[in-house]
Amino acid sequence: MNHHDKLALPVGTTLDRFIMRKQEDFPYATGELSQLLRDIALAAKIVNREINRSGLIDIAGAYGNRNVQGEDQQKLDVIANIRFIRALRNGGEVCTIISEEDEDVIQTGNTQGKYVVAIDPLDGSSNIDVNVSIGTIFSIYRRVSPTGSEGNSQDFLQPGTHQVAAGYVIYGSSTMMVYTTGNGVNGFTYEPSLGEFFLSHPNILTPKTGAVYSVNEGSSESFSQGVTEFVAYCKDNSFSARYIGSLVADFHRNLLKGGIYIYPPTAKAPNGKLRLMYECNPLAFIVEQAGGKASNGRQRTMEIEPRDMHERCPLFIGSPELVDKAEELLAKEHSHDAVANS
Ligand SMILES: O=P(O)(O)OC[C@H]1O[C@](O)(COP(=O)(O)O)[C@@H](O)[C@@H]1O
């Protein structure tokens, strides 16, 4: 019986009760992190409602602004950003936030707050208007700046190994919240008629390998030798190609079924497209807690020392044997390059 079994809570336990019971495992816990997780769940319920009715109340489509990434903001990007920031501000546990939608840090006014949150309020923007699964991704750290003052960018430039919790919400055929606090990964399905998340996927473990690869082959012309060889390896072994174009949705499928998601360096995105702080690190924490792996092709994602709040990095994430295989072929590529350049 592993460590998690003795804490097992039955399927159908509400998220609130689950959070409370897990807090009891930490005698010195103050309840602030528990409340923070509840605040995120509340905002997720509101955003879920907005997404479900977006086609009816004219909140679909472009907002008309560009975000710090240079991407056209969708109206729902802005609404989700506002909803999560408001919930975190009202909760009182968070002093400062960084968001994919904002260039600078966002102060909540809660200078006594012990935590900072990095968030991608709505992931999969290209799929928002076409009824394809999208998501929210969040990462929680303890602040390093002194309590009583405003937080700052230094509070966020911590490696992923310092995360105290991370998770995502997937707005799909059903809405789920999946998160970890470093003691395994659990998934909760939302029951809109009751307004509650219920434990539906306890102690998620990802298969050691799989037969699904997720990469945008539209960019394959500019894939490196190693990435090209890995994609060929997948095809030679009759893997299925599955690419929804929403990171959360592709990641969630592969987490449960086995597989690998890759966003490599490309001509358009030499450092990859995904952001380290609020896309790569939180999903890396989840996948590792589920027995999987995440890397930038050479280094464990969660050991990367961030230099910028919005920095991008390549991502190879999923079943451990597939990430190992990808790293092996990339290492071969680099050794060839080293020989060629020597
Ligand atoms: O269209 P591309 O280049 O394959 O990129 C798709 C990837 O970009 C993303 O949409 C990036 O996220 P945002 O939508 O939050 O900007 C991922 O969800 C997805 O996996």
From TrEMBL:
Cell compartments where the protein resides: Cytoplasm
Binding, Mg(2+) 2: D120, D123, E279
Cofactor note: Binds 2 magnesium ions per subunit.
Gene Ontology cellular component list: cytosol
UniProt keyword Hydrolase present: yes
Residues binding substrate, per UniProt: D123, G124, S125, S126, N216, Y243, K273
InterPro entries: FBPase_C_dom, FBPase_class-1, FBPase_N, FBPtase
Cofactor(s) the protein requires to work: Mg(2+)
Origin superkingdom: Bacteria
UniProt entry tagged with the keyword Transmembrane: no
Domain Fructose-1-6-bisphosphatase class 1 C-terminal: 207-330
GO BP annotation list: fructose 1,6-bisphosphate metabolic process; fructose 6-phosphate metabolic process; fructose metabolic process; gluconeogenesis; sucrose biosynthetic process
Keywords in alphabetical order: Carbohydrate metabolism, Cytoplasm, Hydrolase, Magnesium, Metal-binding
Catalysis: reaction(s): beta-D-fructose 1,6-bisphosphate + H2O = beta-D-fructose 6-phosphate + phosphate
EC assignment: 3.1.3.11
Ranges for domain Fructose-1-6-bisphosphatase class I N-terminal: 14-202
PANTHER family registered for this protein in UniProt: FRUCTOSE-1,6-BISPHOSPHATASE-RELATED, SEDOHEPTULOSE-1,7-BISPHOSPHATASE, CHLOROPLASTIC
Family per similarity comment: Belongs to the FBPase class 1 family.
Protein name: Fructose-1,6-bisphosphatase class 1
Source organism: Hymenobacter gelipurpurascens
